[in-house]
Amino acid sequence: MKKLSLLVVVIAVVLSGLSIVSAQDMGIDSAWWETAGAPYAGTVLHGVSESTPPSNYVKDVLAPMFEEMTGIRVDLETTSWDQMYDKAIKDMEAGSGIYDFVYIEQDIIYGYLANDYLVNQTQALAAAPELAAPEFSFDNFTTFIDYFKNADGDVFGIPMEAFVKIYLYRTDLFENPDIQAAFEAEYGYPLAPATTHEQYRQIAEFFTAYGEANDMELWGTTVQAASGHPSSFYEFFESIAPTFGVYNWGINMENWKATVANGGSMNSDTAKEALAWWLGNLPFAPPEATSSTWDEVAASFAAGRAAQGIVYGENAAWIATDPERSVVVGNVGVALPPLSEGVLAQAEADEGYIGYYDGGAFGLPVSSLNQEAALLWMQFVGLPQVQAEWAAAASRIVMEPTYSDPLVVAVDEATNGYFSLMKDEGYLFAGAPPFPFHPQVREVIAPFIYQAIGGEITAAEALDLAAAAADAELVNLGYGS
Amino acid sequence: MRKTRTGWLLLAPSMIILFVVGIVPFIYVLYVGFFDWNLFSASREMNFTGVDNYRQLVFDPLFLDALWVTIRFTFFAVVSQLIIGFFLAQMLLRDFPGKSFFRTIHTIPLMIAPIAIGAIWRLLTIPGFGPVPFLLDRWFDFDFNIGTNASQAFLAIVIMDIWHWTPFVTLTMLAGLSALPVEPREAALVDGANGWQVFRYITLPQMQPVVLTVLFIRIMDGLRTVDEINMLTNGGGPGTSTRTVGIHIFRVVFPQTDYGYGSAMSLLTLYLTIVACWFLFVSLTQVRRR
Predict the structure, then answer these.
(1) Could you tell me if A453 lies within 8 Å of chain B, comparing CB atoms?
(2) Assuming Cys at both sites, which of A139, A179, A468, B121 could form a disulfide with B160, CB separation 3.0 to 4.6 Å?
(3) CB–CB of A162/A394 below 8 Å?
(4) B40/A287 Cβ within 8 A
(5) Do the domains A2-162+359-415 and A164-348 sit in the same CATH topology, yes or no?
(6) Chain A residue at shortest CA distance from B147
(7) pTM for this structure?
(8) Interface test with B, best of A109, A291, A442 (most B CBs within 10 A)
(9) CATH of segment(s) A2-162+359-415
(10) What is the CATH number that goes with domain B61-289?
(11) Chain B contact present for A86, CB below 8 A
């Protein structure tokens, strides 16, 4: 009953569109913002970000709120993931000054820093104390902000989203006594979220057969296996390979080599086993799996077409609470992904990780023509007061106190503990490796993963070819010899 | 003399614009093609490498694959469009009930942006949700999945292009056919020629300039198709089975930021297109002369 009433509260908040929230409601000192923003009133800040729940919240809620207080308009362009990179990089490289803030995904920050694209926000605020908002502090953020610091500890991006890619499962199916009995009769152990890859596969097999036998549009697992889109590359290298103990895409961080022969592990037996396992899940996934990027995987799960899946956490809240978009509201459970033996211990000892801690920040391009106004906007996005509503709407958390906000606690209960898992077990996950050449190497590896998904080559062949291509490209880019 | 000067003055704005937006970027691409230049390399410098990029291209399996996909795609799409378009144009020359309605409906795809065409066909064919795989499965127990089956994905992009561009061929052919003089045809019929002979020896030769124009326009368009395929197959999948040269160049230049290699690829593709069109033109006009 308590769970139900919490769910109702959360649904009410989500359905209200959060449009009723004002700066005063959030306890923001609007007088300071009005004064600080006065010299820049009428300025229009242009930004670009990926169209995701957190970015859409910024566009729909935070930007109008900021404009109301400061008179500074914020036009945030939310677009596709690849267009977002394309536009931001071209603008910053050409120095055209179109954008005053850009989304920096955690995996691209190393490339941006190497190219000096971004303003050092620590120094910028120190140099202009009149622009430093009293309610803002870099110290408010979780350690996720460390990804956006340089070697000196200066910050180049204000974290705006952070989430883990987690194992979602359908509680209505997993807790159904008839299903539990049938599963146990078939496999000899109780039905529960998988802790090993073998269990995960068996659960996938079981629910696919169950869906078929009961004439349901139900399959055993989602697979983010778009056969021509980098999302499949990411699912394998950032979410699946680490659960087998293959880290950093299998690239040796000391000599920048990927092949086993040169000291890497991209084509190691373990990596090949991981890819074969992942590809082996495809027969138990909905038919759209090979056309599914991150968005479609969330949509498939929300449509009730999969019993379990590895899903980006930014979707957890709406899948669990928004009845307009999800048919599994109230029936979503979260767990750690299935792991090979020893991987958890490695992660606990900080010698590895079990999955992807994703997220991003807003950065201020050096080429921006409105840097001072943009600095104010950056701080506004990083105010502690705006975090809880944002977390409830878009399941992202970048500050520790947000976890204990009543609204977030309610969403946490509705998702059966997503935020608790992120808070307590988040340290087991990790962001992308610090590669300054991230998209460049991804682009030469990914076609082999696509070919393996299409069945043109085997998992082992794909990784042998991918590792050789990565070695060659790294040399070409000037990394390693 | 004054007349000449006035003429040049009037032409100047167009020529300046053409030079700035056409010639200058072309020269820049030509220049960059001789360098190794990647923004995210360790050095970030532009290193002169002469013709190395072009040498690499000849042995690059991904580029050669993409080229082969493009050639096959263009061949199947353009040949089908020419045949269907010619047939429909002949049909539209005659009166039949609902002709105006058909002509309007038939022309609609031409007015839709390629990216929207790709989105429409993606929605139609997406496995699990699209009506095409659903109905094929329901009616014929046929598993249609463009996410895993390379042949089906290739077929889907060809059919999409035929659907999109056949109206253009039809309209052009219709204009050509409508403008043909009737006397040769009537004379041939009086001389006892049958329908095929009239088509083969009278209509087709008279239509040659129109057919050649349509053929070249469609070949050039086919060779540079990017957006609709990129949208339909999510970047040229499954694997690289629908990755055309255009998509490949896009991925090398933008996500991979390999500007030197991408520029060389663009120029080589342009060169191959010109050579192919020239070869086709010479072959077809030679055949006609013989």
Answers:
(1) yes
(2) B121
(3) no
(4) no
(5) yes
(6) A290
(7) 0.88
(8) A291
(9) 3.40.190.10
(10) 1.10.3720.10
(11) yes
Domain ranges for chain A, please list them. 2-162+359-415, 164-348
- List, as ranges, residues 264-283 from A with C-beta within 8 Å of B: 282
Q: How many CB pairs under 8 A join A and B?
A: 129
The answer on pLDDT for A18 being more than 50 is no
A86 to B43: CB separation less than 8 angstroms, yes or no: no
HEC string of chain A? CHHHHHHHHHHHHHHCCCCCCCHHHHCCCHHHHHHHHHHHCCCEEEEEEECCHHHHHHHHHHHHHHHHHHCCEEEEEEECHHHHHHHHHHHHHHCCCCCCEEEEECCCHHHHHHCCCECCHHHHHHHCHHHCCCCCCHHHECHHHHHHECCCCCECCEEEEEEEEEEEEEHHHHCCHHHHHHHHHHHCCCCCCCCCHHHHHHHHHHHHHHHHHCCCCCECCCCCCCCCCHHHHHHHHHHHHHHHCCCHHHCECCCCECCHHHCCCCCCHHHHHHHHHHHHCHHHCCHHHHHCCHHHHHHHHHCCCECEEEEEHHHHHHHHHCCCCCCCCCCEEEECCCCCCCHHHHHHCCCCCCCEEEEEEEECECCCCCHHHHHHHHHHHCCHHHHHHHHHHHCCCCEHHHHHCHHHHHHHHHCCCHHHHHHHHHHHCECCCCCCCHHHHHHHHHHHHHHHHCCCCCHHHHHHHHHHHHHHHHHHCCCCC
Lookup: tokens for A254: 């000391």
Which sign does the torsion angle of CA A180, A184, A189, A193 carry? negative
| Category of B257 on φ-ψ map: left (φ > 0), alpha (ψ -120 to 50) or beta | left
- Chain B residues with CB under 8 Å of A305 CB are 128
CA of B234 to nearest chain A CA: how many angstroms apart? 5
Domain boundaries, chain B: 61-289
pLDDT reading at A21 higher than 70: no
Contact list, B244 vs chain A (CB under 8 Å): none
Q: Does A476 touch chain B (CB under 8 A)?
A: yes
What architecture is the A164-348 domain classified under in CATH?
3-Layer(aba) Sandwich (3.40)
Q: How confident is the model at residue A395 (pLDDT cuts 50, 70, 90)?
A: confident
**3-state SS record for A272-291:** HHHHHHHHHCHHHCCHHHHH
The model's pLDDT over A170-229, given as tens digits with 9 standing for 90+, comes to 999 999 999 999 999 999 999 999 999 999 999 999 999 999 999 999 999 999 999 999
pLDDT in tens, A264-317: 999 999 999 999 999 999 999 999 999 999 999 999 999 999 999 999 998 998
- The per-residue b/e assignment along A52-87, b for 16 or more CB within 10 angstroms, e otherwise, is bbbbbbbbebbbebbbebbbbbbebbbbebbebbbb
Spell out which residues of chain A touch residue B39, defining contact as CB-CB under 8 Å. 89, 93, 115
**Best mutation target, A110, A117, A223, A290, to test chain B (most B CBs within 10 A):** A290
